[in-house]
Design brief:
single chain, alpha+beta, Trna Endonuclease, Chain: A, domain 1, 6-stranded mixed beta sheet, 3-stranded antiparallel beta sheet, 2 helices, globular
Amino acid sequence: MPFKFNKELWDIGRKIEDQALPKLNKYFEADLQRDDDNIWDILDFKDDNKKIIVEIKGRLIPSTQYKDTIITASKVMAGYQAIDEGYNVYFLFCFTDKSKIIELKADSSFKVQFTGTNCIRHYCIPITELKDFEPDDIEN
């Protein structure tokens, strides 16, 4: 592995995912599941019957702190592959003040940034392209 595993940050992320899961299932009227046999799965939750995948990114900052939020290129690439397999793919960003969501589309494109200690490729998603995630607002 090119970098040291940060269990503390991973635990925070798992907690955020666990809190979001029932809200996502309500919002999508789905049965999203995590693959507990593969903690290294690239995308977090999947419902094979409804063909929905959701990646959750916890953020320890408010949604207004930056104009973009980043996501690793590997997650976006896995999302594009899932779209090719007939899935609808969403990224949910859980900021400290609110959660925001975006659907990845086959023609989505984002600015690239190399960042972090290991200079990993990330995509920058403008906060203005995210919509507020309100689990009580079923839009499907």
